[in-house]
Amino acid sequence: MRRSERIVRLTKTLLEQPHRLLSLTEMAEKLESAKSSLSEDLAIIRDVLLKEGSGSLETQAGAAGGVKYVPGMPKQQSADFLMEMSRLLTDPDRILPGGYLYISDVLGRPDVLDRAGKIFADLFSASAVQYVLTVETKGIPLAISTARYLHVPTVVVRRDHRVTEGSAVSINYVSGSKRIQTMSLSRRSLPEQSRVLIVDDFMKAGGTAKAMIDMMKEFRADVVGVGVFMATSEPAEKMLKDYVSLLTLAEVDEVSKEIRVVPSNITK
Amino acid sequence: MRRSERIVRLTKTLLEQPHRLLSLTEMAEKLESAKSSLSEDLAIIRDVLLKEGSGSLETQAGAAGGVKYVPGMPKQQSADFLMEMSRLLTDPDRILPGGYLYISDVLGRPDVLDRAGKIFADLFSASAVQYVLTVETKGIPLAISTARYLHVPTVVVRRDHRVTEGSAVSINYVSGSKRIQTMSLSRRSLPEQSRVLIVDDFMKAGGTAKAMIDMMKEFRADVVGVGVFMATSEPAEKMLKDYVSLLTLAEVDEVSKEIRVVPSNITK
């Protein structure tokens, strides 16, 4: 096989399977190439990723060894993306009755999900995440996108406790709208003692995220982080301290039609 | 820039943006290369995709011209994937009370979503899909994954008509459980006369899918197809004729613990 063709195949194989350890021996066989030439190709790919700041290749030595593509997001690209989002989301037409902000369309766009998911995957790439957890409905797309880049399953907490998937854990909590709500998760959907990353679209006081953290105690899980697309600046005192939000909603004024969205300074 | 490095970058750029027309001029500038060498590189990438059966590169000539990666799924890989799913889903432990089958965990796995989404994107790649439509909750992950490969937004119909995102269209329908249910979609989430692909996880009589099709009439949309992960063999007469299901659930017997899942013969 020609080197150029081999490089296309290698790049494709790696990019399509982020965070998955791929066996060098298997790849060498599939590409009908010597491991030594493979190593040279991988060095070129690693080089490009490093130069771009768009991730890295991690190599594991030994018989069971292999190589893993760890996706990353170049800092400038993250900053540009969040700036673009801030501008987009300050359109006065987005103000909903009650001072809410319409963001579902944005969180349905593949390019937005891809970039936001990659940022979260990058931020938590060293946390050995085993599951991404979210609660229905609006957080699901971003959770799926994040989980894709981390190569872990997504688990969706339901708001409807009538859902029958065997025995379930249900908890009551108070959400941003001050109503008492229920969320539930079937036992079988998450093994005990898993390492879990919580992802959601929006956070106000943090009641929903806090409820997910509480629920995780019932599963003896380790919550390694909480990531939300957007958090409000008020109340400043949230029900949880440790979370990352990509954007801060500083103001929505229904009367003056003023919206202020501040991009976060994302650092690992 | 060395050719091998250029090929890595090109492959990466294309794979990360399926179904997006990328300008050759911009790429040539970014890679500091002549368009002619770029064309040679693209020919190599196209060749690999063709050989693997994993998609194609479509070129558009002219000043506004460019190149687009159209992802595809090799036939054998589709067949293997569906066979693997059939085996996995016939585990007697998956039988839920009422003769339902537990599949949420599978539809939360990134590798499953990736392959199923790619199959749908492949099947409908020539349908000029503008939006993927689904209804909460379990269909969302697959819809997101399909939409990623088609590079179009996902729109989620809500089951809760209290959702306030401006004026909405609500319709009542009878679901598989024979209950009368409501689904609603805000006007602003989907422009009129869009070309829509409906994606869902499961279909029994087709009541939910039929309701989405009816709702699309209210948006004067063109439903170009319906794709579900799994459909039951009974009732054989569904409420809609035109749909693609990846798997057929032929039997779930709560007493004998027998499950039969038949992979579909996917052809364009």
TrEMBL record, chains A, B:
Molecular function per GO: DNA binding
UniProt protein name: Pur operon repressor
One Pfam family per UniProt: Pribosyltran
NCBIfam families noted in UniProt: purR_Bsub
Family: Belongs to the purine/pyrimidine phosphoribosyltransferase family. PurR subfamily.
Superkingdom assignment: Bacteria
Species of provenance: Effusibacillus dendaii
Gene: purR
Keyword set, alphabetical order: DNA-binding, Transcription, Transcription regulation
UniProt keyword NAD, yes or no: no
Biological process per Gene Ontology, one example term: negative regulation of purine nucleobase metabolic process
Domain Bacterial purine repressor N-terminal: 2-71
